[in-house]
Amino acid sequence: MARPITTRQREILTAIIDSYIATGEPVSSGTLAQTVFAGSISSATIRNEMAELADAGLLEQPHTSAGRIPSAAAFRLYVANLTGRQAAPHTALQTQLHSQIDTSFAGVAGASALLERTSHVLAALSSGVGLAIGAAASTDLLEHIHFSRLTAQRVLAVVVTRSGMVRDRVLALDQDLSSVQLETAANFLNEHFRGWNIDRVRSELSRRIEQERNAYQQLADASALWSQAVPPGSTQQAVYIGGVTNLIGLPEDRERLRAMLSALEEKQRLIELLSAYVDARQDSVRVVFDLDQQDPSMAGLVLIAAPARAAGLEGEALGTVAILGPQRMHYQNAIDAVGYIARILHRNTSGELVDGVIP
After folding, report:
1. In CATH, what number is assigned to the domain containing residue 186?
2. Strands 301-309, 69-70: parallel, antiparallel or unpaired by DSSP?
3. What is the reported pLDDT for 264?
4. In angstroms, what is the C-alpha Rg of the chain?
5. Largest Cα–Cα distance in the chain?
6. 297 touches 256 (CB < 8 A)
7. 87 pLDDT more than 60
8. Any idea which of 92-96, 215-219, 336-340 has the lowest mean pLDDT?
9. Same domain, 296 and 343
10. Is 120 in contact with 241 (CB distance < 8 Å)?
């Protein structure tokens, strides 16, 4: 934007954006004069101000005879005003939104289930895609591991981390282990490595085996089981996506839409996208418009995201929750929903919502 705008121009621009978000139609000066300003500002005055806003790069005219629509710069200014306001008491609409979110999470326990539900809730509340990406498991800490014998040489391993993530894997062993041997191995891992970084467990087991190769058979059993339960390279981040069909109706050309949907299917690209813009240490919701700088297929989309941390004093990173949607969206609701759900995840990873009420 080349120059600052006046208070009246800001009011007119906000009215245009609100109207465009609500209807998706270009906005005319006559419509604003009759509805929003109810005769307090004439249509001619509004038309002149709209021309000034267009010169400032804040309004665009899709057709010669049509009204104006907000530019990307206008949406940026609009969101900056929203996020820059001082905290105010919740409105009735915000209270209703929070109640709806609480109800959606009722009875959901555990980080994996919470993140999966998050993607669907955010998609349902917005015109975009709901995203929830778990923190890399390599940064997580072991809480508990359990082995169950299924059949000969087949074992179910269940690994629970401090952040609440639960990972299960069926192991195919070279030799059969009894239930007693499996229990002994699990007890050894839980006793000696509870609270350890996931990646450190593997290296420490290898080190101890070299030191104590002839002393502890249980160590060898535990190491063999751990290597299959949490193999190298298996600590990728979990990605949950909801509402991809919300993008189908966007006015994008077919090639752009195909590239966009392809990017959503390639979950590693989503992890890289969110990692580029969201810092796990930040406390606020971030709104990002220039996604095409990171991924050209995301041009025209907006990212609204916030980090979530697990409950507890240490506040381990749980992951990121986000909405990926078109520029025309209800920003206040989207920002509020992302921030509120991030707080829910922080406060409830150690338990579950009871009857939709935050403990």
Report:
1. 3.30.390.10
2. unpaired
3. 75
4. 26
5. 92
6. yes
7. no
8. 215-219
9. yes
10. no
Phi/psi for 147 (5° steps) reads -120, 135
Q: Which of 202, 229, 256 is the last residue of a domain?
A: 229
**Do residue 48 and residue 112 come from a single domain?**
no
pLDDT of 2 > 60? The answer is no
> Which pLDDT belongs to residue 37?
87
220: buried, middle or exposed (CB in 10 Å: 19+, 13-18, 0-12)? middle
Whether this prediction's pTM lies above 0.85 is answered by no
Q: Which helix (H) or strand (E) holds 24?
A: none
* Of residues 83 and 12, more confidently modeled: 12
Residue with tokens 């104590």: 212
Nearby residues of 285 by Cβ (< 8 Å), 6 or more positions away: 83, 304, 305, 306, 335, 338, 339, 342
Q: Tokens standing for 52?
A: 């000034």
Q: Is residue 355 included in any domain, yes or no?
A: no
pLDDT of residue 240: 83
Q: Which helix (H) or strand (E) holds 67?
A: none
**Residues 343 and 244 both lie in one domain:** yes
Q: How many Å apart are CA 174 and CA 153, to the nearest integer?
A: 7
HSE-CB of 154 using CA atoms within 13 angstroms: 4
Highest mean pLDDT out of 34-43, 94-103, 153-162, 281-290:
94-103
Same domain, 273 and 326: yes
Helix H or strand E segment including 78: helix 72-84
Q: Are 229 and 159 in contact (CB under 8 A)?
A: yes
Could you tell me how many helices (H) and strands (E) the chain has, helices first? 12, 10
* Confidence at 31, pLDDT banded by 50, 70, 90: confident
What is the C-alpha to C-alpha distance for residues 195 and 351, in angstroms, rounded to an integer?
A: 19
Rounded-to-integer distance, Cα 247 and Cα 297, Å: 13
Residue 259: inside a domain, yes or no? yes
* Contact assessment for residue 170 and residue 156, using Cβ atoms and an 8 Å cutoff: yes
Task: Identify whether the C-beta of residue 204 lies closer than 8 Å to the C-beta of residue 193.
Answer: yes
Residue 58 burial class via C-beta count within 10 angstroms: exposed 0-12, middle 13-18, buried 19 and up = buried
